[in-house]
Design brief:
4 helices; mainly alpha; single chain
Length: about 110
Amino acid sequence: MTRPGKVRFEKGEPFCFITLVQDKKLEEIQPTLRLLADNPALNEEFKVWAESRGDFNKRLQSREAEAMKEKWQRHYMKGEKVSGGQSDSHVTKRKLKTPTPPKPPLPGLGG
């Protein structure tokens, strides 16, 4: 928006992004590009996932009954690796602390 005035948002349209990290801290992060091939274990996991995903999509396209029943692969949501086993650091739900109420101002300091 560059001009003052009314703004209209359609129902269900996103209008903001809320993060619990200070925005200036995000600007301090320096991303680094790396080649997947430099991490053989991760590269292998990706290859297994890509093959599984491609096969599943082909089965969906051909309307295979089992794939149609499954609808989508849930490995990510379950924290499972396609090759088997659990992911070491997967989180599907954050357990954040409850905000504390504001403290009353100290006597004599105003507020």
